[in-house]
Amino acid sequence: METITKSLEKRGLTVVAKKHYQAWPQANVERFYGEHKGRFFYPRLVHYMGSGPITAVILKGPKAISAWRELIGPTHLQKARQTTDCLRGQFAISDTKNSFHGSDSIASARYEI
C-alpha cells in the first residue's frame, strides 16, 4: 500500500474514505460489474473480485478520476507493463486480474460509491 500511497500523493490525490473487505460478497461484485454481464470476461472478473481481500477507496483531488485512471494505467497487462509508473504494470496478474478499478466518469463514481 505504501507504493500506492506515494503515487497518490505525487499526483495530488488524497484518500477521503477507505474500506477493507476480507471477501467482497458475490452479490455486490455482480451488481458492481453488472454492466459487463454477458461479456466473455465477466465470470472470471466476478470470481476474482470476490476471491479475497480488497480495499475500496474514495479519492479527492484535481481531476481525480482522470488522474487515478492514468495512474492505474491500461487494463491490458502487456500495455500496462510498457507504461511508466503504472500501478497495473507493477501489480496486475492478467488482463482480468489487473488489480485496480477506476470509475470512468463522475456519474459512475457516484453510483459505485
Q: What can you tell me about this protein's structure?
A:
The protein is α+β, with helices and mostly antiparallel strands. It contains 7 helices and 2 strands; from the N terminus they run αβααβαααα. The chain has helices at 2-10, 26-32, 42-49, 64-72, 77-81, 87-91, 106-112, and strands at residues 14-21, 54-60. The chain has a two-stranded antiparallel sheet with strand order 1-2. The longest helix has 9 residues, at 2-10. The radius of gyration is 14 Å and the shape is globular. It starts with a helix and ends with a helix. The mean pLDDT is 93.
What's this, in brief?
This protein is α+β, with helices and mostly antiparallel strands and 113 residues long. The chain contains 7 helices and 2 strands.
Strand count, sense and barrel status of the largest sheet are: 2 strands, antiparallel
Segments where pLDDT lies below 50 for 5+ residues?
none
Alpha plus pi helix count = 7
Based on helices, strands and strand pairing, what is the structural class? alpha+beta
- Give the terminus-to-terminus CA distance: 21 Å
Which sequence of SSEs, written as H and E, runs from N to C?
Answer: HEHHEHHHH
Number of strands: 2
Which outline best applies? globular
Strand content: 5-15%
Helix proportion of residues, in percent? 40-55%
Q: What is the spatial order of strands in the main beta sheet?
A: 1-2
Rg on CA atoms, Å: 14 Å
Mean pLDDT: 93
